[in-house]
Automatic annotation (TrEMBL):
One of its GO terms (biological process) is amino acid catabolic process. InterPro entries: Enolase-like_C_sf (IPR036849), Enolase-like_N (IPR029017), Enolase_C-like (IPR029065), Mandel_Rmase/mucon_lact_enz_CS (IPR018110), Mandelate_racemase_C (IPR013342), Mandelate_racemase_N_dom (IPR013341), RHMD-like (IPR046945). It comes from the Bacteria. PROSITE patterns: MR_MLE_1 (PS00908). Residues 152-250 form the Mandelate racemase/muconate lactonizing enzyme C-terminal domain. Gene3D superfamilies: Enolase-like C-terminal domain, Enolase-like, N-terminal domain. SUPFAM superfamilies: Enolase C-terminal domain-like, Enolase N-terminal domain-like. Its cofactor is Mg(2+). Keywords: Magnesium, Metal-binding. Pfam families: MR_MLE_C (PF13378), MR_MLE_N (PF02746). The lineage of its organism: Bacteria, Pseudomonadati, Pseudomonadota, Alphaproteobacteria, Hyphomicrobiales. This is Mandelate racemase. GO terms for molecular function: hydro-lyase activity; magnesium ion binding. Coiled coil: none annotated.
Amino acid sequence: MKITSIEPFILHVPVNVPSISDSTHTITHWGVVGVKIGTDNGLFGYGYTGTHAHLETDRLVTACIDKSYGPLLMGEDAQDGDRLWQKLARYPAIQWVGRAGVTHIALSAIDIALWDLRAKAANLPLWKLLGGATSEKLEAYNTDIGWLSVPKDKLIDGCKRAIEVDGFQRLKIKVGHANPMVDIERFEAVRKAVGPNVTIAIDANGKWDLPTAQRFCARAEPLDVFWLEEPMWYDDIASHATLAQSTSIPIALGEQVYTAETFNSFMDAKAVQYVQPDVTRVAGITEYIQVAHSAHARRLPVVAHVGDMGQVHVHLSYWHPGTTMLEYIPWIKDCFVEPIKVEGGHYVRPELPGAGTTLTESAIASFSQRC
Ligand SMILES: [Mg+2]
């Protein structure tokens, strides 16, 4: 299965309302930035990372795919998984300028496309190629109702609808106001509306410092918070370790952690309890597997962050024994030949060969930007 073509792409897909915000980010579109890799057996693999649809930055990613990694890939055998990943990830001139960030997420898109090709060549969905499903059902938790930009009354309506109409039993709502007591008030209102049996996680998107996070946790502890995600700056292992040891609320993080080694450092420091790798931000499926196994060996749950909006992670989550649930944000699902689907609060298991990343012609026609 020799690689014969490498075509980068950029899609900017509108989110389902005019704009959404958390404590740190405001976006109107999700960037689907990646590559279509062709082979001499006629198969095409698709892989992508997820971005905030900032076109000039997206072009850095596609330039890296095309100009830096492309020549290293042409003519190679797409079946050579680990050898190809090592060749690209450890290429001296590329790792010199980035073992995280642009070069890393570009490699993520390539690695996902290669796994998509391998699964298609085997005529299997990715979860089956990896070894089969370890659970019959995969619970979905709904993040899309809980943005910080949603006013309190609409937040409550959305949470009730997600449970009563859509069948979710798990929610996540954003926090991270300068005054964390505003977040306490919103959480209490949601808890009162949905009752005691629904799990509610919260996500501060790196906003607070340690004293603010500690003040919040002291007040939130009696409220049954399922996890507190990214309370502080993404790289600050010491502060997360201190917080984790001073509160009974479990700490979740990982969406801004790029490497298996950094995940190990957080886990070794006991700074995280729910491990949240993102296949589009570590260097693809190859590195995701390392992170997930490493967490599982420490008996920590693995709950992916969906930079891919679930298309690849639904495969990884059905397969991996450390995973029992997956985030749900449905913004880009209709761009794919086999869109993610949640019924009664559970992900439907994908069945088509591949990694779930094949774009439809109409998505390409509607949302493409010039690379
Ligand atoms: Mg998050």
